[in-house]
Amino acid sequence: MVGKWRVRPLKAMHFNPLQGKPGEFRVALNLSELEERAWSLLERSQALGFKSPRFETYTRRSGVVEIWAVLLQEFHDYYAATNPVVDQWDDALAELRQAIGAGHEFNLIVLCNFAEYLEPQPLAV
Hints:
The protein is of the alpha+beta class.
């Protein structure tokens, strides 16, 4: 237990905050960089509608180990329209970014692994 959150054992799959599976929509918060503000931000995220986080570790190439809280992870069709998936979280994400504060926004990663974002789209003529 960490505070009131349960820390799950690591899975065989390696967590990388910047990589996801096709059709994945994920919101993750880097707790290591946020230090003493991390717990209040986790509580704020739950107040905004995110479920209890799943904690993961990520080891940088330099050997530094980071602790990440995965606030949301959903899987959808890779070719699905992203607006219905992403739009419902826009307000909560904006409030969470504001709570994190200027200069620390990079500690919140929103991963949208959809064809609409990743594959080249034809230009309208």
